[in-house]
Write a structure and sequence with these properties.
The protein has helices spanning about 10-20, 45-65, 90-95, 160-175, 190-195, 205-210; strands at about 70, 80-85, 100-115, 120-125, 130-140, 140-145, 155-160, 180-190. It has about 210 residues and is α+β, with helices and mostly antiparallel strands. The chain has a single domain, classed as Peptide deformylase (Peptide Deformylase, Alpha-Beta Complex), CATH 3.90.45.10. The strands form two sheets. Strands 1-2-3-6-7 form a five-stranded antiparallel beta sheet, sandwiched between helices. Belongs to the polypeptide deformylase family.
Length: about 210
């Protein structure tokens, strides 16, 4: 484990953010922290500070609102993310997208790899790219590995929308934004998606906007 003294800048940064109170400020695309691979978590934060930071990430995710938030999105380059999805969508959309409620959980040093060849394409948005969505094709199932906030090892297969959330947030920890993987011809404002492309799947958008689906 790295000496505590080497962790001081990150710990000080987190303590400074928490001292301000309330939801943490979310950094937007263009900030360098979103383009750098995050540092593996190795005890940089004392247990009490880690607990408070995780709680602040959760509060910030809820306030945004969103279904996932990675530490780099609040300016902290650590491989930590939180996810939670109550899945408040109509049944037709939930079935097509495989969107089921996900309880709150913390991902520490997560990684993923495709599980099978099936891929799925849906609109995604990002709290660090506010106001926009685009279609992203991703593996429909992935194997998630990592730890939780207590250090317990994670090794499980996730599918459907939960797999998409895991991939999106883990990508953040690798310096990747969803737009790097998106069909850019699908790029639409949130208002346009709500007005034109609210169907469960993006076939109509693909035909009208001129992009291909797998």
């Amino acid at each position: 484990m790295t000496p505590v003294s080497d962790h001081a800048p990150l710990a000080e940064r987190v303590a400074e953010l928490l001292a301000a109170g309330g939801p943490l400020p979310i950094v937007a695309a263009g900030h360098p922290v979103l383009r750098r691979p995050a540092e593996p978590y190795d005890g940089q934060l004392a247990p009490e500070l880690l607990t408070r930071f995780v709680a602040a990430l959760r509060d910030t995710m809820h306030a945004a609102p969103g279904v996932g938030l990675a530490a780099p999105q609040v300016g902290v380059g650590l491989r930590i993310a939180v996810i939670e999805d109550p899945a408040p969508v109509p049944e037709e959309i939930a079935v097509v997208r495989g969107r089921v409620p996900q309880p709150f959980r913390v991902l520490v040093n997560p990684s993923y790899e495709p599980e099978g060849a099936e891929r799925a394409s849906f609109f995604e948005g990002c709290l660090s790219v506010p106001g926009w969505q685009a279609v992203v094709t991703r593996p429909a199932r992935v194997r998630l590995r990592g730890q939780d906030e207590t250090g317990r090892e994670l090794d499980e297969v996730v599918a459907g929308w939960p797999a998409r959330i895991v991939q999106h947030e883990t990508d953040h920890l690798n310096g990747t934004l969803y737009l790097d993987r998106a069909e850019l011809r699908s790029l639409s404002t949130n208002e346009a998606v709500a007005a034109r492309w609210a169907q469960p799947a993006p076939e109509a958008a693909a035909e009208a906007l001129g992009f291909e689906l797998p």
